[in-house]
Design goal:
heterodimer; A: alpha+beta; 2 domains; 5-stranded antiparallel beta sheet; 5-stranded mixed beta sheet; 3 helices; B: alpha/beta; Alpha-Beta Plaits; 9-stranded mixed beta sheet; 4-stranded antiparallel beta sheet; 10 helices; 15 strands; disordered C terminus; transferase (chain B)
Amino acid sequence: MSDDAPTNDGQRFDRLPETPADREVEGRASRREVLDWWAERFGIERGVFEGYSFWEKGAGKVWIFNGEATDPSRVEAIGMTFLRTRQEHWKPTTRAATRFGGLATKNVIELDPEQAAAFVAGDDQDLPEWDGDWGYLIAAHEVAGERAPIGVGLYLYDELRSVVPKGSRADLPVVE
Amino acid sequence: MNPLDRYEALVDDADAFRAACDRPLPSVVRVNEMAASPARVREAFDEEGVAYEPVDWHDGLFRLPDGNPGGNWPYVHGWTHGQEEVSVLPGLALDPRPGDRVWDACAAPGSKTTQIADAMDDEGTVVANDNNLGRLSALRHNAERLGITNAIVTNQDARNFSTKPLAFDEFDRALVDAPCSCEGTCRKNPDVVDQWTLDHVHAVAGIQKGILARAVQATRPGGTVVYSTCTFAPEENEAVLDHVLGEEDCEIVELDLPLDTVPGVTEWEDETYDESVTRAHRVYPHHNDTGGFFCAKLRVGGDDPNAASGGEEASA
């Protein structure tokens, strides 16, 4: 790339390009890749995100927005943080997992009441019985008769690591 | 002086008013209905053994007599948000619809922004502004926790708010939940009474007038502006409305609220105010066992461009 090619400015919001072919800023994820990733990783249909726009601010932090925007480069926030890109394994945010994880059809690990309480407290735990993919999973449990996503876990070597952010961790009762 | 002394002349029962102001308020949560229904929250509270009581004038509010509104599963899932009962009134008065363009001029820490987004079913655009950058982090945290994707957060002085970063230059609705003297919150924060000064009342009233005027200017003809505070001071309530009625093209309209209120006052000390301020609502702590509050709904003047299509349709 030449010296005057567009680069990522971590202080402003820029809309993701539609496809990799439309990419002008090196390393920036495209909308198509983001939708493909959610579809392939969690089975969330691409149509779910049809009305949303996607924006990058910071190094690889992708935001999802459901309102009207043209050039919001100077605002403080647009929608919610959604996905961390520009790293080998993309990572969904906890809030993306709670907001959209109910629509996931795969890579959802359902926790029993004790495991759910440990997870939301931020504790890592041995869960050798999981026979699905390694990597980032959506952790869920049953509450009030239905499955509800709690957040994102990282599954490696028979262990589920809780990546619930410190400010969102809680000591909650085990609800049998 | 204790500022509550000066309002005894305004209330029907000064002893009951003062007694109510001395009682602490219970913790209350509002259900984030875009994430869960009130029935599902009740079921989850029952499973977990969280004590709760309904609020008779609003299905989506629960009082938690044991406190700790953040220490339960519904909160962790973003199904509930800790919010004082009276604080839902401006959102009800604003009555935003899916697809609207809404400005929350003094938005942090976001209780009303998130209530507005919920009422819009997360569709449309809510612009949540606050001049205090530090308080914006609380707003952002709350909006994300509740799963809101239709909010833009800005950090401007609302008095000369610029719509330049936005995709449009006027709003359908605007909320001015203004910075104020806050005596109405004395049941949860008794310090506000000790910190009260008349100088601050006069200073903040100037800011309130500037913000409300800007909100009227930034709202389309026929659009709605709601003004609210948590102070009893007429200088910060009726006087602000009276000033903006004189400066901007707008009128105060009738508003039904689902709890006991009394009309705004037309006289205070040496001042008199436009008769239409009686359409504003004063909420006193002893009438509904809540915090104190003030709320008025304004219609911006001019022909409503949406009137032909039914008036309440969202603009394209």
